[in-house]
Amino acid sequence: MTERWRLLALTGVLATIVYLLNLHPALNAACTLVIGGNTIWACFAGPRRTGAQPRRAWNLVGCAGIIFLVGIVIRPFVTEAGLPLLADCCTIPGYVLFSAFFVDLLRARQSLERHTILDGMIVCLAGGLASTLLLAVPAVNVADRPDLVSALAGLYPLFDVILLMLVLSLTFTARSWPPSLISMVIAMALLFVGDLGYAIIGAQGLLYTSPLLDAPLLLAYTAFGVTPIHPSAPEMGRPDRPPVPAWSGRRMVLLIPALATPFLLLVTIGDSTGHRIAIAVVGALIVALLLIRAIAAVRAQAAAQRLAEHQATHDALTGLPNRRMIATSIHRLLGKTPTGGPESTWVIVLGLDGFKYVNDSWGHDTGDRLVIEVGERLRACVHDEVPVAALGGDEFLVTAVGDRAVADRLVDDVRACFDKPFVVSDVELKISASVGIAHAGPEGEPEELMRDADTAMYQAKSGGPGNTTIFDVSMHDEVRERIELEVALRRALGDNDLWVAYQPLIDIETGRAIGAEALVRWTHPERGPISPAEFVPIAEDAGLIGMLGDWVRQEALRQLSAWRADGTVDDDFYLSINVSAKQLTEPNFPLVVSAELLEFKVPPRCVALEMTESVMVDNTGTSARTVFELRELGVKLLIDDFGTGFSGLGYLRRFPVTGVKIDRSFVIGLGADEEAGEIVRAIVAMSQALRLSVIAEGVETRPQRDTLASFGVTIGQGWLWGPAVAPADFATAWHAGGAAAQIAAAQIAAGQLTAGQLTAGQLTAAQTAAGSTERHR
User: Where do the EAL domain residues begin and end (predicted)?
Assistant: First the structure.
C-alpha cells in the first residue's frame, strides 16, 4: 500500500502529459479513463486496506469520483453535439457528494460546530456573489446559448470555494497535516483552478477550447486518488487536537476576504442598479451572519467557562462535588456551628470495602459503574440539605452540623445505602463500607477535618469490612507508622529482606508430609517479625501485592528445586503457593508461571496455586481465562479459606479446581460447634462428589484430626504437625525420618509422651519441629 500511492500519482501525471499532447480524441479519452479508474479503485479499496474511517464518507467520495469521471469523459462530445447540460447533470451531483464527504469527516473529527457552519454560509454568500456578478452574469449575456448552461459555467468556482472551505476546516483540527490531507487540499485547489478556467472562457462565450483546461482537473483527480490509498488516510477521520477557536487567525483568513468581497465588488462593478442591490443584500446577510456568529461565540465561551468551573468543583465520574467544593461547604458549616454548645460540624468519610477486588476481577469499567451507583444511592439516602461529595477512587464524604445524635442518624442513613446489593454489568455485588468520623467546632479547619475523617476511615478498614471509627489524635501516629511500613516493605522487596516459611501438609492417615505451603515472612531490622496480617494489606493498598506474590512464587520454586535435587523431599512432594486476584487478571500470568517451572525444573504437578473463593465469581473475565490456562499447564488449583465466601456447587463445577482448603474457623469449632461440624461434613461430601481433594487448615488437636478423618478429610495442616518454619528447619524435621519426629513432637505437645521416652535423635528432631513460635500465616 505504501508504494501503490506513488504508482498511482506517477500514472496520473504521465497520463495528464499524454492528454496535453492531444494526439487523438480516443487517446485522450483513454488517459482520462486510466486516471479515473485508478482514482475510483483507490477510493473504494484504499479505506478497506488502510482502515480509514468513517467508511460511509469514503464510499461517498468514491461515488463522486464515478460521477466526475462520467462528466469529464462526455463533456467534449456533448458540447460538440450541442447538449452541454448533460455533462453538468453528471458533474453537479459529484460536488454534492464531495460536500457530504467533508461533512462526515468533520463530524468524525468532532469539529462540525455552529461557527463552522456559519463560516461556510458566509464564504458561500461571498463566493456566490463574486461568481454570479463576475462570471455567471457575463456568461448569461452571451448570445446563442441557453441561459442555464451559461449560469452553471459561471457558478462552478462557487462549488469549488465551498469544497475548499470545507477541506480547510478539516485542517483546523489537525496538529500536523498528514500527506493524505495535503493531497486533498491540493486536489481542491486544482479543481478550483480548472473550474475557474472554464468559467472565464464561459464568460467570453466559449464552453471548450483546449485540453489545457482539463489538465488541472485531471491532476485534481489524481490527487483525489492518492488521498484514500495513502497510509496516512486514517488520520483524516481522527481529531488529534481541539478545534481551532471561533475567532482564531486561521479562521479569519477565510472570513476577512468574505467580508471584503461586497465592498470590492461595489467599487469595481457596482455601476448598475441591479448589481448594487445584489451587493447590498448579500453584504447585509454577511454582516447578519457575522453578528450571529459573534453572539454564538460569546455564548459558547460562557458555556465553556461554566463547564470549566463545574469540572473544577465536581467529580468527573459521579458528578458529585469534589474535595475542593466540599471544603468550601465544610467551611460554611463551621461558620454556622455554635460556640461552646453540644453541636459540632461532622465529617463522615466512607470507603468501599473490597473495591480493589472488583477492579481486579471485573475491570475498571465495572468499578467505575459501581462508584456511580454508590454515588447515586448515597445522594438518595441522605437528606437533601446534607452535602455529599466524591473524593476520588472509592471514597465519599457527607457532612452536617448537629449533636452526636445527628451524626449517628447520618451514619445510619449511609449504612442503609448498602443494605441491598448493587447490580453492575449484570453482576450482583454485595459490598459494605468502612466509615471514618471526625468533628470540630467553629475553630476547625476543613482540610484538617477531612484528613482526620479519612484517617479514621482507614483505621476502620484495618479492623475489617463494615467498621465505623471516630477519629482521635493517636491515629496520626498509626498512619505515620503505616506509611513507614510501606516504605520499609518497598525497600525489603528491593533488597530481598523477606523470606519464605514452609508449613507441612500432612497425610492424616500416615502422618507423612506430602507437601507444604509457602508463606511469606518479614523480619524488620528494628521491629523484628511483622505479621503478614499487618504487611500484606499494606502491600495490597500500595499496589505491591503482585510484586510480592511473584517474589514468593519464585523463591518457593527455587527452594523446591533444591529440595528435589538433594533428596529432602520425594518426587511427589508439592508446594502450595498463594496467588492474588490481581495476578490472575494479568493475561500473561500463565506464561510467566510456565517459564518459571522450566527455569527451576519443577514439574507442574508439584505446584499448587491457592486462590480465594471470590475469584470464582468472575467466571467470564480475564481471571477465568487465566485459571483455565493455569490448569492446562498441569498445576494444581486450590480454593483457599473455602466456606467463607461464595461457596457453591455451581462455581466449583465451572472452574477446573483440583481441591479445596476448609477454612480454619470451621476446624476450630469442631467438637464445640455442631453447626461447624455440619458445614465441614457438607464441604467434604460436595468435594468428594466432584472428586476434589480436601485440606483442613488450622488443625491443632488430635480430636480435631480424628473428627476430620471420620468425615473423610485426607490432608491436614496446622500446629498439630508443626508451624511454618524456615527452609533449613523444615528440611531437618521432614527429611527421611523427620515425619516420625514431627508426630512425636505433636504427641509431646498433647501430653501423650515425655522427652525421656524419646531417643536423643528423636528428641532433637522433635524440638526442631516444635521449637518455632511463629504462628502467622
Answer: 482-738
